[in-house]
UniProtKB/TrEMBL annotation:
Coiled-coil blocks: none
Name of the protein in question: (raccoon dog) hypothetical protein
Pfam families: CYTL1
Signal peptide coordinates: 1-21
Record InterPro entries: CYTL1
Biological process according to GO: positive regulation of transcription by RNA polymerase II
PANTHER family reported in the protein's UniProt record: CYTOKINE-LIKE PROTEIN 1 (PTHR15974:SF0)
Annotated keywords: Signal
Length: 135
C-alpha cells in the first residue's frame, strides 16, 4: 500500500506529461520573423541613431498582409552596406530569409489584404478601444 501511495504522490508532483507543441506553420513562421525583424530594426535605430548608414536605411515596419512588403524587403536587402555596424548585416540576413520564406516556401499560404505602400512607411499607431463599461 505504501509503495503504491508513494508512486502516486511522485506522479502528482512531477506534473502533467509534457505535450509536444504543434510545429510552426509557414504563416506562423512568417509572422514571428516579421515581428522579429521589425523589433530588431527599431532596436538598431535606438542603439545607432547617429550612424549615417543606419539613418539612411529604408524603414522596416512590416505587415505580411500588405502586398508592398515584398518590395520593401527587396529594397532593404539592396540598401548600401554598413561596414561599421555588424547588426545591420544580421538584420539583412533575417530580411533575406523572410523574403525567401514569403516568396518561395510559403507563397500559397500568404494572403494579401491590402496594397497600401504608405502604410509600411508611416504605420498607423495601434490603439486599444475599451468597451463602454471600462471607460
Amino acid at each position: 500500500m505504501m509503495p503504491r501511495l508513494l508512486s502516486l504522490l511522485l506522479l502528482l508532483l512531477a506534473g502533467p506529461p509534457t505535450a509536444r507543441p504543434a510545429p510552426p506553420t509557414c504563416y506562423s513562421r512568417m509572422l514571428s520573423l516579421s515581428r522579429e525583424v521589425t523589433g530588431d530594426f527599431q532596436n538598431l535605430q535606438a542603439i545607432e541613431p547617429s550612424e549615417p548608414c543606419v539613418r539612411y536605411l529604408p524603414r522596416l515596419y512590416l505587415d505580411i498582409h500588405n502586398h508592398c512588403v515584398l518590395a520593401k524587403l527587396r529594397d532593404f536587402v539592396a540598401s548600401p552596406q554598413c561596414w561599421k555596424v555588424a547588426q545591420v548585416d544580421g538584420l539583412k540576413d533575417k530580411v533575406r530569409k523572410l523574403y525567401t520564406i514569403m516568396n518561395s516556401f510559403c507563397r500559397r499560404d500568404l494572403v494579401f489584404l491590402s496594397d497600401d505602400c504608405n502604410a509600411l512607411e508611416y504605420p498607423m499607431p495601434v490603439t486599444t478601444i475599451l468597451p463602454d463599461h471600462q471607460r
